Amino acid sequence: MIWYTALVLAVGAERVAELAVARRNARWSLARGAVERGRGHYPPMVVLHTGLLFGCLAEVALADRPFVPVLGWTMLAVVVAAQGLRWWCVRTLGPRWNTRVLVVPGLPLVTDGPYRLLRHPNYVAVAAEGVALPLVHGAWLTALVFTVLNAALLTVRTRCENSALRMAGAGALP
Asked: What is the predicted pLDDT for the residue at 168?
């Protein structure tokens, strides 16, 4: 369980790094006229993502979930791939990437990198990680609860984001 705790803490550290990037990028966006949309769903998103990390560790410890090598190593590969996709999104969007919905008016829609393949690739990374991170060590209940709650949250989030992009004149949206 020590190595799993280290993995979950590393993902938590990655989240802290994301927040630092997001804060810097928020200053950039706000200086260019961005207005934040969807503030109401942001606190539940923070709670859900924090709960994922705590849930992973708590379920494994309290329910004595075993490490099943075939599942665990496969899910670890998914976690690593999800991190790669997430940071590809961050790099592609540059200063426009944020954990909040901030859209600079008049900028064109980004269609490079993973955005040429998917409309919301960062959310694919989040969904994959939300399933895979708990399953690395058999925390199937955490994976299930996160997936259900995250699906509801992402429904709200993508509608909010798409609306904000339309309002900002960021090109045609599908």
From this structure: 73
